[in-house]
């Protein structure tokens, strides 16, 4: 393996080819090492294994040989050695690599699910890729609970428990929002300043704190929430800074008792990305509810309906939603 190291640095192309050739020899690869974000012992050695990763144990020996820390020796790219099934590998005499298992059954995850497009898509993604322990919804005295009914339907569909936590007394104290008080929900683009009336102050922080406590009690590994890039305009508790700060706070709050990850796979993506991902995982979009107004049909005019309709258009996915005003979104987007 000396050809992999040149002048004390890794030749990633040669390393890629070398590992492909050896991985292809094993019908049942024994262990894979995760190169990023895993616990290490006092000697800097990774001691937790996971089949999601693509680095074999022999590659970690290479890292020791060049006397560089594993984290520095290998870029944090879990897809570095992955190749779609059926693609021929030039370093293995034309043989195709065996299919690698993508599902991580080790991350027991509770998904906060409102019943909206984002959280239902996240539930289906988590069920497909991790160990979905259950769905968690909150009744905080919102204008309507229709989407909670869709969350319950999602749980039944995925065959997992669904719990609804009643925090209406807390929600009553968070007054001034169009989602909790007798205030009209504005029409228009989701990034307009008028949409600030839909903020429920500190809502996500309260819900996540409860969810983390429940996850610790149930020995779960992660709490998942579907915050995304489109939320960053208006909602401060959906932004990357909040997510990082909340994770740090929970790490301190549960130190020595539980190690729980805040799983936010859509944090830097758009709602169109969520639609595309949901389509890949078979999310039944017609069985989700986004509208803030809670009528017999989704209105098509409030900020979340406009964002939803635009997301399907940008993702190139047919929108099965029955809107009261299916064309208003174009006017809202063009006028923003």
Secondary-structure map:
Blueprint: E1 5-6, E2 9-10, H1 12-23, E3 32-33, E4 55-56, H2 57-65, H3 70-73, E5 108-112, H4 117-129, E6 131-139, H5 146-158, E7 162-166, H6 168-173, H7 203-217, E8 222-224, H8 240-253, E9 261-263, H9 271-280, H10 303-315, H11 328-334
Parallel strand pairs: 5-6, 5-8, 6-7, 8-9
Antiparallel strand pairs: 1-2, 3-4
What does this structure look like?
The chain has 336 residues and is of the alpha/beta class. It has two domains: 91 residues, no CATH class; 227 residues, HUPs (Rossmann fold, 3-Layer(aba) Sandwich), CATH 3.40.50.620. 35% of the residues lie in helices and 10% in strands. It has eleven helices and nine strands. It has a five-stranded parallel sheet with strand order 7-6-5-8-9, with helices on both faces. It has a two-stranded antiparallel sheet with strand order 1-2. β6, α5 and β7 form a beta-alpha-beta unit. The radius of gyration is 23 Å and the shape is globular. The termini are far apart. About 21% of the residues have low confidence.
């Amino acid at each position: 393996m000396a050809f992999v190291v040149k002048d004390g640095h890794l030749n990633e192309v040669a390393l890629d080819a070398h590992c492909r050739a050896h991985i292809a020899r094993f019908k049942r690869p024994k262990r894979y090492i995760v190169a990023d974000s895993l616990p290490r012992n006092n000697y800097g050695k990774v001691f937790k294994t996971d089949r999601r990763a693509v680095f074999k144990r022999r590659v970690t020996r290479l890292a020791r040989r060049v006397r560089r820390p594993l984290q520095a020796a290998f870029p944090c790219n879990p897809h570095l050695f992955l190749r779609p099934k059926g693609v021929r590998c030039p370093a293995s005499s034309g043989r195709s690599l065996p299919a690698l298992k993508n599902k991580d059954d080790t991350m027991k995850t509770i998904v906060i699910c409102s019943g909206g497009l984002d959280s239902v898509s996240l539930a289906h993604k988590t069920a497909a890729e991790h160990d979905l322990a259950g769905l968690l919804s909150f009744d905080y005295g919102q204008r309507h609970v229709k989407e909670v009914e869709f969350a319950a339907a999602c749980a039944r569909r995925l065959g997992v428990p669904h719990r609804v936590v009643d925090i209406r007394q807390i929600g009553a104290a968070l007054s001034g929002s169009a989602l909790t008080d007798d205030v009209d929900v504005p029409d228009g683009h989701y990034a307009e300043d008028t949409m600030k009336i839909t903020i429920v102050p500190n809502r996500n922080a309260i819900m996540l704190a409860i969810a983390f406590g429940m996850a610790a009690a149930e020995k779960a590994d992660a709490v998942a929430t579907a915050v995304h890039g489109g939320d960053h305009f208006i909602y401060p508790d959906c932004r990357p800074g909040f997510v990082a700060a909340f994770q740090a706070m929970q790490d301190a709050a549960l130190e020595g008792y539980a190690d729980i990850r805040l799983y936010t796979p859509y944090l830097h993506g758009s709602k169109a990305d969520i639609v595309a991902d949901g389509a890949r995982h078979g999310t039944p979009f017609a069985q989700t509810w986004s509208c803030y107004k809670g009528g017999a049909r989704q209105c098509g005019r409030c900020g979340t309906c406009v964002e939803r309709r635009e997301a399907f258009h940008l993702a190139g996915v047919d929108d099965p939603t029955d809107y009261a005003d299916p064309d208003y979104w174009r006017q809202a987007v063009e006028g923003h």
